[in-house]
From TrEMBL:
Coiled coil regions, renumbered to chain: none
SUPFAM superfamilies in the record: RmlC-like cupins
Record-linked CDD domains: cupin_QdtA-like (cd20292)
Protein name: WxcM-like domain-containing protein
Superkingdom in the source lineage: Bacteria
InterPro entries named among the record's database cross-references: QdtA_cupin_dom (IPR008894), RmlC-like_jellyroll (IPR014710), RmlC_Cupin_sf (IPR011051)
Length: 139
């Protein structure tokens, strides 16, 4: 059976409305700025700078990661694109992470990350061992 091909991870510019004098609003809408129906949203905060989070891939879940405040260095790895590095450093920039993409995140102190996901949480959807990920998707 052929391995499904997913799009590469890519950056998404989210719209910004408002002005410096009154503040700004940024919108993320399912099937518009977010390229999938949204079934879960969660956020990560107070992560120490030396901690690397993520360290997993998903079988089915798509995500968009956004640094609402602060800065995140995201490393992704896919069979076709290899390793890529993305910097999320403004609330109008999201990173689309497709299924089958190993990803890690490292945060600047005080960073607030919002993650928008296409699936509800399901532990069976996670590949948490890097060698298993390489064996399944990068062979």
């Amino acid at each position: 059976m052929p391995v499904p091909v997913h799009p590469a991870p890519y950056l998404i510019e989210l719209p910004r409305y408002g002005s410096e004098s009154e503040g700004y609003l940024t919108v993320a809408e399912a099937d518009k700025t977010i390229p999938f129906p949204v079934h879960r949203t969660f956020w990560t905060y107070n992560t120490p700078e030396l901690v690397v989070r993520g360290r997993h891939a998903h079988y089915h879940t798509q995500q968009v990661l956004i640094a609402v405040a602060g800065r995140i260095v995201v490393m992704t790895e896919t069979a076709l694109q290899g390793v890529q590095t993305f910097i999320l450093d403004r609330p109008t920039l999201g990173l689309y992470v497709p299924p089958h993409a190993w990803h890690t995140m490292q945060y600047l102190a005080g960073t607030l990350q919002v993650a928008i996901a296409s699936q509800p949480y399901d532990e069976a959807d996670y590949i948490r061992d890097y060698h298993t990920f390489r064996r399944i998707w990068c062979a």
